Every structure is written in structure tokens, then in C-alpha cells.
Amino acid sequence: MKSLEELKKIREEARKKVDLREEKKGTRIVVGMATCGISAGARPVLMALLEEAKKRNLNDVTVNQTGCIGVCRLEPIVEVYRPGEEKVTYVDMTPEKAKKVIAEHIVNGKVVTEYTIGAYEE
Amino acid sequence: MELYRSHVLICRGTGCTSSKSDDMEVKLNELIKEKELDKEVKVVRTGCFGLCEAGPIIVVYPEGAFYSHVKLEDIDEIVEEHLLKGRIVDRLLYKGEEEEKIKSVNEVTFYKKQKRVALKNCGVIDPEDINEYIAYDGYMALGKVLTEMEPKDVINVIKDSGLRGRGGGGFPSGLKWDFTSKAEGDQKYVLCNADEGDPGAFMDRSILEGDPHAVVEAMAIAGYAVGANQGYVYIRAEYPIAVERLQLAIDHAREKGLLGENIFGTDFNFDMEIRLGAGAFVCGEETALIASIEGERGMPRNKPPFPANSGLWQKPTLINNVETYANVNQIILNGADWFKGIGTEKSPGTKVFALGGKINNTGLVEIPMGTPLKEVIYEIGGGIPNGKKFKAVQTGGPSGGCIPANLIDTPITYDSLTEIGSMMGSGGMIVMDEETCMVDIARFFLDFTVEESCGKCPPCRIGTKRMLEILERITSGNGEAEDIDKLERLAENIKSSALCGLGQTAPNPVLSTLKYFRDEYEAHVNEKTCPAGTCKDLVSYSIDPEACKGCTLCAKACPVDAISGERKEAHVIDQDKCIKCGACEEKCPFGAVVNK
Fold first, then answer.
1. Between B4, B136, B264, which is nearest A1 by CB?
2. DSSP E strands: which ranges in B465-586?
């Protein structure tokens, strides 16, 4: 160890790996990961969400999985819970769409209407 | 960079490991691999979570789901349900007294009342991964000290903080640092006393198992402050997990250049090594410990000279306990005022206690000093099991004393415990219920000190042996009228004449029980009865013919066929055959078996 700066750098890197264990107050993103979700390709979506969130240092965001959300034909489904706002349900997701959701909805606060269940149903 | 959506923390402290958490860790990893979750889920081994009674413990993040009493066969379900499908396994969640299942580790009452400073990282980080320690500000204190502070500033911060030795004595740590720094000498040493010997105490082991880098870092800081470049940790070989993790921590710190030469680009050099002890209680005494490191027989010597002036190989030596060191980094990072803000004026900070005996939540707790005993026993500890009555609590191990129920509101500080005839000690806290015989407890501790006395000074070698003989006489029903006075006189004499702390404090368990439970001693001697009903030679079992329904359960349970009687008729115990094992009393559904 040559300097305090070097240690701080290691700390920043290392912190990203453990911040999962801190209590989060921010946004919760949930991916439907029952058999239906997984077979429809939920896993790559989940990984894309995680990767994008890390890349942007969104430390207050948790990405989690859940069971069957119920509309199996629209899987992979991603739901976003932002504190104080109504839940948003995205359907028929792909890793690319997931990245866009992070960028627009999570970072900028604008719901990506075209991917939501409402838009799909119309 | 590795990305994980979930961390599975599994306790690999000694307690949970002895309940097979090592096999569970292997199985978790196998199943996670099998389900191809190994890129998403990471298994993290941690040190002790503290709630040992509920072990083995597994915590799954990000939910913080707190699984307790996990068995090897439950691992399948955790992986299949929770990790694969995202459904928390309700059945395995920890249940508090409220009988409500507790989902998150943050909701558990046991933790809510605690303040974790020394145990900050225990159960949070992987002790074998230096990067996890660094993530939680590890080595920042060392960096700050080396790059921004003069050695005398470091000593002043420790002095200001009011930190006192956590090994039992409670000597102001800053003063020790100051003495050692001012002592003349070309070579100085920093030692860590990890020879935890009190029966029932395991906080030092848990710190070394759960957060070994904290000790490595603090010793380097101490080295800088007092002008030493070499440290030794004296630890008992019977702590294999702690030894292994500490060695790993030292190796990793060396690799990263946090031990060795020119640390943080300064001209400060520091390295450390482990020295294994054979587990003799007396080696926790500092001069005996030093003798043992030197390769001599572990025996204490007269003080002065104190180790600060003439310690290891006659060089100025700083010696502190594990828990004391574990506080140092936090004090440096947060400042002396922060530390003084916790606890009481004369006993600042927190203290870790190992809760054991007749208590619901057996485990490791860290509380601010000044917390009343009552709160620790009833709120954090969850009270006495099976609706029994609280009788006394023993603190300080073989050097401490028993505190009776009427003093349970006493705040826990060094001075208040000493005032009522006990002591802080290293932090063992053994709870006793109405079925514990206080004379027998005193005998138990004396038995321990007699065994552990090194034999160097006669008051301890001969005196404690004589005390034990008297106690054995009393508990076996052969006590004589003058025995109690004789015991008291002996105790006072040993206290004032023994060479080291071991002998000077050995009579404490006897003196404190004599002070608060003299009537029990008198009952043993004068009436030849044991009020708690535990001294075998003084109890006899009999069956109340009114209450007995003749169910024959007692007769079946008796290992020596001492109970006879016809079905549906009152049974009788043959006193000549009875070995007083108490099996009949346990089995009787009607409470008809009485012991007097």
C-alpha cells in the first residue's frame, strides 16, 4: 500500500460488491422468475438490470426476483416500485429494453410507457 | 467485475460450524452451481452473528431474510425456493418471543438493543476476504494515522476516548500506550492477548473469527503510536478457526503492503506473528503470557517492572486484549468524542458479553456500558427458559462473583460491578435460575482455579486447594460449624497475598456467594440440606402417594430399578438403591416426585 488514495480506490471498488447487504430505501426492481419467466428469458433480463444498475452506480436500487406474477403469457415481466409512486409493470422484456428502463425510468424518472402492460394490452 | 443479485451469508463461527455449517456451505455452493445460479448468487462465509442459540444462521440479502436453526437437509429448500424462485422459506425464519416470524435481520429484538462497535463487522463481512474488510472502511484508520497524525496525537486520542482494557482489569488503555511510548529502548513490542480463558467467554475468539483484520490494523496503529515494529498475537491453539483466519488476515495484509516495510509510503515498518498457547488459564496474565512467548514456562512474576518498561525479552512492551484492539480503529476514525458519547463517563464505549447458562438467547451481545443487567437478561437475553425464576448472574468468570436478583438493576460498568463484589472480567455472563445451588457454583469455579493455578506462590497453590476441600465437604453434607468462617478467612488472606491476578481474584466466587447467599451455606452445614436441590448427597427423592396416579412412567425411567409399585397404585422409591439422578422427577406428569 503506497498511499491513502490507493486504499480509497480499493474501498470504492470493494464497496460495490457488498452494498447489496445494506438496507435500501430506494427503488426496488422485481423480475418474475418462476418457470414461466425463466423459460421466457427472464434471467438475461435480470442480469442486464443488475449490470446497468452497477454501471451507473445506482447504489440505492435493489434488483430482486419473485415468483410467477400471473400473466405468464407476457413474461418476462419486470415491476418497478419507486418510493411514493405507483408500481409500474413492464412486460415482454428483453435485456435491451431492461437497459432502457434503467436509463429512463430509474435514472430520469420517466416511465417507458411503450413497454408497460397498459401499452401492450392496447 | 462480478455481479451478484443475492448474497447468502452463512455463519462459520465456531458455534455454527460445530453444528455443521461447514457442510452446509459446501452444499449451498454445490446446489447453486447445479442450478446455474453461481453467476447470480454468492455464498459468503462470515463470523459469529451473536445469536448462537438460534444457530446455524443463514442470512440472505438483499431481503435480509434471517434463517435460524438451519439443518443440512434444509439447504435444498432454501436454494430451490428462495434463491431460484424468490420465495422466502417461512418455515425457517427466526421467531422471536412474539411468536411472529421475523423476516429481516433488522427486526430482531436481540439486535435492536445492541450497539455494535467491536463486533461491527462480525456476521457482516467475509473474514477471509481483505477487500470486504476494506469495503467497510478497513485500514482507513491505519492510513489516517500514518499519513496525518504524529504518534503522540494517536496516544492522545486513545487517552481522550477513555478506552479501558476489555480483558477484565479495566486499566486505561491510553496510559498503557503512553508508558510504553515513553519507555527507553532500542526495540519495542506490541502484543495482543488472545488467551481467552474464562469458562463461557468467547468474544475474543469471535472477533478473531469474524473480523481478524480489525486486530491486525489496530496492532499496527499501536506499533506506530508506541514506536514498535513487531507484534505478536498470543492465542490458544484450541481456537483453530480463529488461528487460521488470523493467519490468513496477516498474509493478505502483507500482500497488500499493509504490513511490512514503508506502509502507506511512509517510513513506518511493522510486521506481526502468531504465537500459540497451550490453553493454560494463567497465561492470560500478562507476565505469564510474556514468559510463554519467550519459550519459558507460563508463570507470572512480580510487578513492577511493568511490561511497558520491561516486557517481552526485557524490552518495553504494550499488551492489550483482542476486544480492546477491536475498538481502536473505530475511535481513530470517529474520534474520541464519539466514543465518549457511548456508555458512561468512567466506562465509555461498549462491552461484549457472552450470555450463557439458564437464558433463552444464548449468544454474544454488545451493549453500551451502563446498560442495566436486567435489560441484558430480560430484553436482549429473552429471560429465563421454562418459566423458572431468576436467581443470580455470574460475571467475570472465575475471577468474578455472583450478583443476586435484588441487584439486577445495577448498570454494567467496571466500577459498579466491582462495588457489588463481582467484576467486569472478560465478559462471561452466566445466568442462574432457582435450581442452581450457589455453594455448588462456588465449588465449580474453585475447582477450575485449583486446576489452573500455576503453583508458583503458596497462597494460590495451597490456599485455593484448602478452600476447595472445605467447599467439597459442605456440598457433600460433611460441613462443620466453623467451616464457613474458615472459608471466609482463607478467602480474604489469599486475596491479599497471592502473586498475580489469578490468585488474588480466585476467592471472589466464594466471597460473593457468601455475601449474598450465606443462608444457603448455612442450610448445607447446619441442616444438611441443599435448598436448590442439586447437591446430590443432600437431596433425597420421594413420591407423594396422594399425587401419584400409578402410571409407572417413573419406574420405567429409573436406571437402577429403585422404584416399585403396582399399576394405578402409589409407587415407592427405595432410598438405598436410588442414585439421585432425577430421571423420575423429569418423567412424572403429575409432579408427584419431590426432592428435598
1. B264
2. 541-543, 563-564, 572-573
The answer to whether position B117 is within a domain reads no
Selecting from B62, B131, B138 the residue whose C-beta is nearest the C-beta of A20 gives: B62
Q: Same domain for B210 and B317?
A: yes
Minimum-distance CB partner of A10 among B85, B124, B131: B131
Residue B57 vs residues B8, B60, B68, B360: alpha-carbon distances, Å: 11, 10, 5, 16
The predicted-structure confidence for B161-210, as pLDDT tens digits, reads as follows 999 999 888 999 999 999 999 999 999 999 999 999 888 899 999 999 99
Q: Are B250 and B136 found together in one domain?
A: yes
* Per-residue pLDDT tens over the stretch B477-506: 999 999 999 999 999 999 999 999 999 999
* Cell numbers describing residue B239: 481456537
Which residue of A17, A57, A63 to mutate against B (max B Cβ within 10 Å)? A17
Mutate to test the interface with B, among A2, A13, A20 (most CBs of B within 10 A): A20
Q: Do A20 and B137 touch (CB under 8 A)?
A: no
From the list B2, B6, B147, the residue facing A17 with the nearest CB is: B2
In a domain, B115, yes or no: no
- Chain A residues touching residue B84 (CB < 8 angstroms): 33
- Residue A1 and residue B143: Cβ atoms within 8 Å? yes
Domain borders along chain A are: 22-121
3-state secondary structure of B388: coil
Give the global pTM: 0.87
As for the ipTM of the complex, it is: 0.81
Give the number of residues written for chain A.
Answer: 122
Only one residue has cell 401419584, namely B548
Out of B500, B527, B554, a domain closes at: B527
B246 and B198 share one domain:
yes
B79, amino acid identity: V
Domain residues for the domain of B410 are: 350-433
Q: What CATH number belongs to A22-121?
A: 3.40.30.10
Cα–Cα distance for residue pair A77/A70, rounded to 1 Å: 10
